[in-house]
């Protein structure tokens, strides 16, 4: 994966290809260079999947997982695709560890660049921090944050390289979502001093997107310092993509060994030998 310098928006949720093109055009005009197209999977999808599994089991057909494949980008103009790096992201909302395991074990999930979760219960939050290997922990700003964080869980998730997302898109036009966003931001500040915070839009249309410097100013209202606010849409995005890439590729060991050139060794041996070829005059002086 190639990493572009600049501003990141790692969550846009378009409802159609046309809305995606409009969103990408707006992001490029505002100066963003990396975007993640997000697909949300609700826990209720598993209920429908269970009924499908029963029918397919009767026909001896292996059931497909409830995770959809990534959105196709064939209809995106080449000009846009060359102007901004496009990543694929999946966000899973769950309340029990069993449902999380079923979704995470899906084959389609391996096709995504970034994996995010929305824990909707205390059990789901503990399972995320203790067991899951995901990149982002997010929440739905349309409702008040359903889980209560504590310093132990926050630090555990941060040490494992997870990032805490604050999506501002709904809060642009909706006062309730804006209030929930601010409460969540100050909660992260009080518990973890706003460590590992990622700011994204979560936009469904271009009207919910703001320029990078407007987002930085907004982040100051969420309890972030000026340095943290700028990092939340630059360094944080790069760190998330690097973590996601290392998660997909697995651990690796690199050995660095110093190699001495054989040619140098031969020259040294020749210099120290008695058969060194010297001009005739120098040979006489040496022997004399």
CATH superfamily: Metal-dependent hydrolases
Q: Span from first to last CA?
A: 69 Å
**Helix fraction by DSSP (H/I, runs of at least 4):** 40-55%
- Counting DSSP E segments of at least 2 residues, the number of strands comes to 7
What coarse outline follows from CA principal-axis ratios? globular
Look at the structure and give the mean pLDDT: 84
- The total count of helices amounts to 13
CATH class: Alpha Beta
Q: Do you know the CATH architecture?
A: Alpha-Beta Barrel
Question: What gyration radius follows from the Cα positions, in whole Å?
Answer: 27 Å
Question: How do you describe this structure in short?
Answer:
By secondary structure, the chain is of the alpha/beta class. The protein contains 13 helices and seven strands.
Can you tag this structure with a few keywords?
alpha/beta; 288 residues; 7 strands; 7-stranded parallel β-sheet; 46% helix; TIM Barrel
Explain this structure to me?
- The chain has a single domain (15-47, 64-249), classed as Alpha-Beta Barrel (TIM Barrel), CATH 3.20.20.140.
- It is 46% helix and 15% strand.
- The chain contains 13 helices and 7 strands.
- It has helices at residues 17-30, 45-58, 78-83, 97-104, 122-130, 151-159, 169-173, 175-192, 212-220, 226-231, 235-249, 262-272, 280-287; strands at 7-12, 32-41, 85-94, 114-119, 136-137, 163-167, 197-200.
- Residues 57-64, 263-270, 272-278 and 281-288 have low confidence and may be disordered.
- GO terms for molecular function: RNA binding.
- It holds the Pfam family RNase_P_p30.
- Belongs to the eukaryotic/archaeal RNase P protein component 3 family.
């Amino acid at each position: 994966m190639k990493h572009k310098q600049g501003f990141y928006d790692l969550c846009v949720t378009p409802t159609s290809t046309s809305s995606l093109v409009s969103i990408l055009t707006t992001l490029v005009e505002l100066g963003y260079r990396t975007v993640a197209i997000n697909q949300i999977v609700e826990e209720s999808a598993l209920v429908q999947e269970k009924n499908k599994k029963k029918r397919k089991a009767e026909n001896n057909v292996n059931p497909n997982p409830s995770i959809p494949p990534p959105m196709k980008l064939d209809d995106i103009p080449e000009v846009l695709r060359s102007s901004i790096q496009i990543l694929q992201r999946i966000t899973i909302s769950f309340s029990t560890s069993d449902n999380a395991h079923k979704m995470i074990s899906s084959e389609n999930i391996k096709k995504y660049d970034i994996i995010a979760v929305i824990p909707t219960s205390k059990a789901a939050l503990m399972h995320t921090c203790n067991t899951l290997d995901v990149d982002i922990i997010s929440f739905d700003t349309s409702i008040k944050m359903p889980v209560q964080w504590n310093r132990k869980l926050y630090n555990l998730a941060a040490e494992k390289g997870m990032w805490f997302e604050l999506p501002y898109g709904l809060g642009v036009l909706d006062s309730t979502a804006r209030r929930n966003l601010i409460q969540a931001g100050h909660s992260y500040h009080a518990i973890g001093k706003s460590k590992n915070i990622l700011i994204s839009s979560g936009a469904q249309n271009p009207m919910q997107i703001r320029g990078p410097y407007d987002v930085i100013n907004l982040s100051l209202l969420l309890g972030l310092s000026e340095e943290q606010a700028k990092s939340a849409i630059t360094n944080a995005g790069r760190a998330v993509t690097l973590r996601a890439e290392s998660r997909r590729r697995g651990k690796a060991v690199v050995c660095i060994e110093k190699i001495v050139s054989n040619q140098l060794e031969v020259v040294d041996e020749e210099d120290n030998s008695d058969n060194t070829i010297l001009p005739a005059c120098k040979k006489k002086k040496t022997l004399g």
